[in-house]
Write a structure and sequence with these properties.
With about 210 residues, the chain is α/β, with parallel strands linked by helices. It has a single domain, classed as Metallo-beta-lactamase, Chain A (4-Layer Sandwich), CATH 3.60.15. The protein is built from 6 helices and 14 strands. The N and C termini lie far apart (about 35 Å). GO terms for molecular function: hydrolase activity; metal ion binding.
Length: about 210
């Protein structure tokens, strides 16, 4: 099992492809350039099983239409952000000169649970603060957590968009993400990967909370 990062769109949001040795894969946050993501998967001769969203901001959902035009995949999203897919004000695109609308019905997630999709197993962690329905997907098999815009290398997610809450974000990071093994790779929504241990030691936003 391996992961690949594909920065997409003008904000360079990270889409991820997590693939299994059986040839299947799942797609995290296809935020833009959906055709490019499709071509990458086809080149690797992978069979996608699902789209997993860490949250529903426009730069994480903008490529869904092209991906779904190729494959009829379920879209997993926290139930608190179901309406964000079709509301440019909630998903933030209205503030950045665009109108991102996704009309596909998602499979809504509620509560922390184990999600099994084919050969993939994820522990779902509710990590609100950047947005009300932010989810982090922990995959023990690759010792990685797909954290969206909750935690970055040396930084944390912004909280000045609708539904953001700074104290809640810090609580989510401390209670959920920092509880993971220190060697866990953090695959963030923007920028390079880091580890839980590195952020515990060096992230200035996490000290003194």
């Amino acid at each position: 099992m391996k992961w690949e990062r594909i920065p997409v769109g003008p904000i360079q949001a990270n889409a991820y492809i997590l693939s299994h040795t059986d040839g299947s894969c799942v797609i995290f946050d296809p935020g833009a350039e959906g055709d490019r993501i499709v071509q990458h998967i086809e080149k690797q001769q992978l069979t996608p099983l699902a789209i997993l969203l860490t949250h529903a901001h426009f730069d994480h959902i903008g490529g869904i239409h092209e991906v779904r035009a190729k494959w009829d995949l379920p879209i997993y999203l926290h139930q608190q952000e179901k309406e964000w897919l079709t509301d440019p004000t909630l998903n933030g695109s209205a503030y950045f000169g665009g109108q991102v609308i996704v009309r596909h019905e998602p499979t809504c997630i509620a509560g922390e649970q184990t999600l099994q999709i084919g050969a993939f197993t994820f522990d779902l962690l509710e990590t609100p603060g950047h947005s009300p329905g932010s989810i982090s997907y922990y995959c023990k098999e690759v010792e990685a957590v797909f954290s969206g815009d909750v935690l970055f290398a040396g930084s944390i997610g912004r909280t000045d968009l609708p539904g953001g809450n700074y104290e809640q974000l810090l609580r989510s990071i401390h209670d959920k993400l920092l509880a993971l093994p220190e060697e866990t790779i953090v695959l963030s929504g923007h920028g390079r990967e880091t580890t839980i241990g590195a952020e515990m030691d060096t992230n200035p936003f996490l000290h003194g909370f």
